[in-house]
1-aminocyclopropane-1-carboxylate oxidase homolog 1 (Spinacia oleracea), 370 residues
Amino acid sequence: MSIQTTLNKTRTADYDRTNDLKAFDERKTGVKGLIDEGSKNIPNIFVRPLEDRSKDLGTCPKNLSVPIIDLAHVHNHTNEATTTEVAKSIVSASGKWGFFQVVNHGISVELLERMIEGGRSFHEQDDVNKKLFYSRDKSKIVTFNSNYDFYKSNAANWRDSLSVNTVFTGEVYPHELPPVCKDVIVEYIDHVIKLGDLILMLLSIGLGLKPDYLKQMESTKAWNFVCHYYPMCPEPELTLGTSKHADASFITILLQDQIGGLQVLHENQWVNVEPVKGALIVNIGDALQIVSNDKLKSVYHRVIAKSIGPRISIAFFLKGLFSSPKLYGPIKELLSKENPALYREFTLEEFLTHFITRPLDQPGIDHFKL
């Protein structure tokens, strides 16, 4: 039986999922490889179980959306009152939604567009060049694959990803990056780290802490840059681009193109995060929910599959250094008799290991509750 026949066979009682996963993985061409070959149906490994699809929550009307926050007047820090007001808005959005979009954030639209195109260039280059980076070794800094939890999930997601992960090393050298998009990645990361520092400063102020408090927690010492590529899907109703999950980060900064597909779970319904030209999406991760003792919320989100594409998104996760001996837990300044600690302390090694050893769509924050 050919690999393609194995991938496309109808699910039966003796369906060998493990064999099909291995067959797909050995190709090293990802989901895009299936589309390039003209697949009209999605392989069984991508089909969500019927019980999952039947329990899916509805999507709310378009008149509900995550907050949009203007950062135009906080870059120079000259107007303390304005900065404080913006900080309060960010904390409010982070508590109610866990998500917000920022505009006038200091990164040019031109650079954002070049970053999108850089990501597209990587995923659409010749397979022989992409295969050089194909790996599931999580200790490698630069990897290309499809679904980091490929062998753990109930259904694979319809996406390919390029990842640059400094969580284990704290740094990456330009020569390690894919040549086709190396320069724009280096430039973009330099800018997005500065934006991350600004967001953390505003969150600190909004929580009533010193402006540099969250940065001093070393949350920006290491990060993971991931460029997702979501090809058009011939059967989008059967799969997802990314399963429901919460991020194992302090904060995540996301750049998405104009196709859209990101959804946030809010009040038990899915809300579309509509693309706003020039905007970046920021969401709270599990680590920040814990250290804020639930003042800030890390919420479920997902990406739906679409019959149009490809969709490109660039996620930048501020995670901290895996090997740090520092203990993390609820910030003592935020605790009181009325607001006791809800979580125990942990190292980032324990925290991140717990995340990568479970399926993406399973909750992780409860593991650290007292």
Summary: The first helix runs from residue 3 to 8. The chain has one domain: 50-368. The mean pLDDT is 92. The two ends are 52 Å apart (CA to CA).
